[in-house]
Amino acid sequence: MKPFLLLATRSEDDVADEEYETICRFSGLREEQLHRVRLEAGPMPPIDLHRYSGVIIGGSPFNSSDPPELKSEVQRRAEAEMRDLLDEVVARDFPFLGACYGVGTLGTHQGGVVDRTRGEEIGVIEVSLTEEGRRDPLLRELPEVFHGYVGHKEGTRRLAPSAVLLATGTDCPVQMFRVGRNLYATQFHPELDGPALVNRIEAYKEHGYFPAGDAERVKDRIRTGPAVTEPRRILAAFADRYAR
Hints:
Pfam families: GATase. The protein is α/β, with parallel strands linked by helices.
C-alpha cells in the first residue's frame, strides 16, 4: 500500500505529535503508512503524488483570513506551498482531506470566502448532514446528526462555486464540503478526541481563542459535554476508500 501524506503546521512538538497519533489511530493507519511533513519546520520538499494514496491536512493555528502583514513569514510560505500543491491535487481530483485548516486552504483556493464572521468558540456542536452528505461515500455510515468538536476564529462565509455542501452547523453553516469527487474539507475536527482537545486548550490558551484566564472553564466544558465519537469515522472511511 502507498502511504498517505500528512501536511502539518503546528510548531509545538507535543501537540503536533498528538495530532499525528490520533490521525493514525482514528484512520487505522500505521506510522509507516502516514508520512508527515511539518511545514512550520521548513520548506515543503518536492511532493510526488504518485507515491501517495492521498493527502491529509491537519489543524493549524494559522488563520487564512488574517491580513498578509499580520501573517508570519512561515505562514506565508506554507500557504504558498499548499496553494501550489492544491493546483495539482484539484486538477487530478486527487484524494484530499483537510481537517479544520482544510477549509481555509481548499476553500480559498477554490474561490470561497473564509473570514471571522463565522468563528466558533471551543466546544461541541451538532453537525447535520445535507442530502448530498447522506449520499457521500465518506459519510453514508454516519447518523444524519452527530456531535463534533469546533474552536475556530474563522469559518466559511461563502462556499466556493465548485464545492458541494455536505454538512452544516449552527454558528458556521459550512461544516464540510467536497470539491470534485475526492477532495474534502471539514470545519469540525475529525482528528480530535476529548483529551487531545483539552491538551490543545492548554497549548493555545494565550492565542486569543478565549481569555487566557478561562482555560480551566473551557476544559471543563469539554470534559462534561456530550461524547464526540462519530467524526473520527471520517478518517477511517477516507483511509479505507483511497488506500491503494
